[in-house]
Amino acid sequence: MTFLSMKLTMICVLLAASFGFASEREDRADIERVVSALDDSRTTTAQKGPLFTTDAQKDLDRLAELDRRMISEPHAPWSEVTTPRILIQSIRFITPDVALVDATNTQYGSVILVRRVPVLIVVKKEKQEWRIAALRVLFTLGSLP
Length: 145
Fold this sequence. Notes:
- This protein is an alpha+beta fold.
- It has a single domain (about 5-135), classed as Nuclear Transport Factor 2, Chain: A (Roll), CATH 3.10.450.
- The protein is about 35% helix and about 35% strand.
- The chain has a 5-stranded mixed sheet.
- About 15% of the residues are buried.
């Protein structure tokens, strides 16, 4: 193998790797947009339907109930709290078309400081669009943290 052919091979490998990273970076941004749309309080449950695959397993009702309970809990004086928000902790690609999103439904407050409820989201790429295939609230609603 000549020096020139080694150099060309190395350039091809680096270009292929950079395209793979760019694609993953775009996929991460698309997944973050889907989770952000899911978390948008101005959107009704019916409007969130297109975010999910047709056979999705979803705890959307549990998530909405959790949000209502987190907001409506009686609070001590000076205990202002924020609206609960889904914050992504990590995105792990299982295959190029399936990813696990570890997230928390997070609320900040002056007395509670921070309250986090784990949420697991499985997203799947269908027809070049990321959709939620499964949404799980990993928490019992009977006892808020």
